[in-house]
Design goal:
- The protein has 7 helices and 8 strands.
- It folds into 2 domains: 161 residues, no CATH class; 47 residues.
- The protein is of the alpha+beta class.
């Protein structure tokens, strides 16, 4: 998994929202028709999938909204300390509603989520964004309760923001914040590539030009973080 980690996105889920129902991998396969390679990742990395919690009007008494009819929390017990994001994306695509993942491994838990919304072009299809993750946290640590919200959409947006490593600007919508983070990720990759080229370059003139280019891109990164 390759994404920047943030501090806290793990919560004490409401008891009344508990489902605790195993989800067979074959049910995921039936909805998404994964390749043999992706099935191999499921087998190698995932011990068990549990539908742990259902945050819905009937469980937490918050009204649904068209984009967020409910929020499902899946717990994945892992065989290894990292998971390929293709596995999570496969599960997300099989479930036509917003989801949050809690990954469990050797007494620790990591929260992972991608902002998921109905397509602007076709509301029956769902768009899954980039994944963001918390740091791993010991299961023994106390976790906060859910943030206050007026409806499920407001709750979902707050929960997603807790996964993001760069805070929102004043008045910035979640989609604007996510767009900024996507651009930041792209520019950080560009910075790393330029730094590698600069370290390998032998010609003085080229080093000067690369250094100037690197400074310019770094300024953009600093602006996006602020």
């Amino acid at each position: 998994m390759s994404q920047t980690l943030t501090a806290q996105a793990l919560f004490t889920w409401p008891i009344q929202a508990a489902v605790n129902r195993p989800v067979p991998k074959n049910k995921i396969y039936a909805h998404t028709k994964p390749t043999a390679a992706l099935r191999s990742l499921f087998v190698a990395q995932v011990e068990q999938i549990i539908w742990a919690y259902k945050l819905a009007p009937e469980t937490i008494n918050l009204p649904a909204r068209p984009a967020v009819p409910e929020i499902d929390v899946f717990e994945l017990t892992l065989k290894v300390p990292e998971i390929d994001l293709a596995v999570l994306r496969c599960i997300d695509k099989a479930m036509p509603r917003p989801m949050l993942f809690n990954l469990r491994f050797e007494g620790r838990t990591q929260a992972v989520a991608a902002f998921k919304r109905p397509s602007d072009a076709n509301a029956s299809q769902w768009v899954v964004g980039d994944y963001h993750a918390s740091a791993w946290q010991a299961d023994s640590l106390t976790r906060p309760g859910l943030p206050m919200a007026l409806d499920l959409q407001g709750l979902y947006e707050q929960l997603i923001r807790q996964h993001l490593n760069v805070p929102a600007r004043k008045g910035e919508t979640l989609r604007e914040q996510l767009d900024r983070l996507a651009e930041l990720k792209s520019k950080q990759i560009e910075v790393n590539k330029l730094a590698t080229r600069l370290a390998q370059e032998k010609q003085f003139n080229r080093k000067v030009a690369l250094n100037a280019e690197l400074r310019d891109v770094q300024k953009i990164v600093d602006t996006l973080v602020a």
